[in-house]
From TrEMBL:
Location, primary (coarse class): cytoplasm
Sequence ranges assigned to domain Fructose-1-6-bisphosphatase class 1 C-terminal in this UniProt record: 205-334
Lineage of the organism: Eukaryota, Viridiplantae, Streptophyta, Embryophyta, Tracheophyta
Keywords, ordered alphabetically: Carbohydrate metabolism, Cytoplasm, Hydrolase, Magnesium, Metal-binding
Reactions accelerated catalytically: beta-D-fructose 1,6-bisphosphate + H2O = beta-D-fructose 6-phosphate + phosphate
Organism this protein belongs to: Actinidia rufa
Top EC group: hydrolase
Keyword presence, Ribosomal protein: no
Fructose-1-6-bisphosphatase class I N-terminal domain boundaries: 13-201
UniProt protein name: Fructose-1,6-bisphosphatase, cytosolic
GO terms assigned for molecular function: fructose 1,6-bisphosphate 1-phosphatase activity; metal ion binding
Keyword Metal-binding (UniProt): yes
Length: 342
């Protein structure tokens, strides 16, 4: 896509305008959703700005231990979480919040309650911050069953019930990728006007890709299907060229590349992490939802990831995300491993 031409456009398609347009085509959709989204966007803008300044932390005391006034400063992930939680509660549209940073789900006080549940990881990949690697904010949105009596069960739903999901990548630019169940669109923050502008309309993941993405340092612990799959990537038996390996170690950045260029992102269960590493509610579900909406797939190895039913809010799962055909290959390897066991 021609970004230069896109930025020169005078008819700016902001994220709010885009979502409102979508609603006018579906009158049953509620304007509350646009308001909720604008609060999520605010949180993302704040985090993006804070991440950009992170390198200056030691100089000007933005984050870290103690600033020049002797005040205790908050770590970036803690600060990001606080801002996100407050932005969501102040929308008066949320009921239950689940954050990677909070052990328990937050039940919003009744006077400020609305009908949405939001699950999120405010700063995913935060172990990469000090070396300037792209990190991200991931979120998923559900509807509560009864806002007068919210319970944790309202968020322990299958990922198929999500109303929307997205992530914001805080990298060389700030990119917000969103699906409300009708395809995937990408918006880039124009810092001069403080608006996210549609730059990647209707993202479709290529049907097959040339890249695989996995932490190869865990090879010793892998199960057979993962080991076989990676071997096939390096030494294809069908005469095709080997795939390239790209692994950033920051989920949003690795998934963003997979969404745009195709290929596969793998975080399997292994002997070290028998349940996998990534979290079902705010990593596996939103990313699987986006991948499916873009024409790709998200599986746990044995099943469609969105069909999982989490038992606790911080459950983990193995996850394979990416191009349709690449996922079919790893699915077949898991199916044949199951058959051999039976
Ligand atoms: P991080 O630990 O830096 O927060 O779930 C967290 C995550 O990063 C993902 O963003 C990333 O894909 C994954 O962990 C990386 O894990 P490994 O270091 O085990 O490869």
């Amino acid at each position: 896509m021609d970004h230069a031409a896109e930025t020169q456009r005078t008819d700016l398609m902001t994220i709010t305008r885009h979502v409102l347009n979508g609603q006018s085509q579906h009158p049953e959709a509620h304007s509350d959703f646009t308001i909720l989204l604008s609060h999520i966007v605010l949180g993302c803008k704040f985090i993006c700005n804070a991440v950009k300044k992170a390198g200056l932390a030691k100089l000007i005391g933005l984050v870290g231990e103690t600033n020049v006034q002797g005040e205790e400063q908050k770590k970036l992930d803690v600060l990001s979480n606080e801002v996100f939680v407050k932005a969501l509660i102040s929308s008066r549209l949320t009921c239950i919040l689940v954050s990677e940073e909070n052990e328990e789900a937050i039940i919003v006080e009744s006077l400020k309650r609305g009908r949405y549940c939001v699950v999120f990881d405010p700063l995913d990949g935060s172990s990469n911050i000090d070396c300037g690697v792209s990190v991200g904010t991931i979120f998923g949105i559900y509807m509560v069953k009864d806002k007068e009596n919210p319970t944790v069960d309202d968020v322990l739903q299958s990922g198929k019930n999500m109303l929307a999901a997205g992530y914001c990548m805080h990298g060389s630019s700030c990119t917000l990728v969103l699906s409300t169940g009708n395809g995937v669109n990408g918006f880039t923050l124009d810092p001069s006007i403080g608006e996210f502008i549609l730059t990647h309309p209707n993202i479709k993941v290529p049907k097959k890709g040339k890249i695989y993405s996995i932490n190869e340092g865990n090879a010793k612990y892998w199960d057979e299907p993962t080991a076989k799959y990676v071997e096939k990537c390096k030494f294809p038996e069908d005469g095709s060229s080997p795939k390239s390996l790209r692994y950033i170690g920051s989920m949003v950045a690795d998934v963003h590349r997979t969404l745009l260029y195709g290929g596969i992102f793998l975080y399997p269960a292994d002997k070290k992490s028998p349940k996998g590493k990534l979290r079902v509610l705010y990593e596996v579900f939103p990313m699987s939802y986006l991948m499916e909406q873009a024409g790709g797939q998200g599986i746990t190895g044995k099943q469609r990831a969105l069909e999982l039913l989490p038992k606790t809010i911080h459950d983990r799962s193995p996850i394979f995300l990416g191009s349709y055909d690449d996922i079919e290959e790893i699915k077949a390897l898991y199916a044949s491993a199951e058959e051999t066991k039976a």
